Amino acid sequence: ATRVGNRELFVTENENSTLLPLHINFTTNDKSVQSTEYEYRIITPPLHGNLLKDGSPVDSFSQKDIDDGKIVYDHDGGNDIYDSFEFNLTVSTYDNSPNYFVHIIIDPVDDEIPILNRNEVIVAKQSSVVHINESQLLR
What's the pLDDT score for residue 41? Predict the structure, then answer.
């Protein structure tokens, strides 16, 4: 039996995360095939980051690369909370691979500078209290 397993990857905004065997793995009963022979080819790359091997972008990688922790998803720092990439598998005994996806969940970081939407003058007499409400701050 042959099986490709894949699970979502979690990454913090503007950081990176290593793809591990729990994210992508290929299993087969054919013991003659080595993990270096499993090649994952990227069909559609991620939109909000890059897949890197030793710091350089890749368009394919092996199961051994994943097993050795060499494949990293590097988030681009944008405010998107979801990304993915599509891949298929090439191996000598398994040529007709369907396409698979790895879904990437991005944990946002509150790093945006607050912007005042409305700059309205509020008049207060000395030593008095003025309550500021939402309608005075927002459009």
Answer: 92
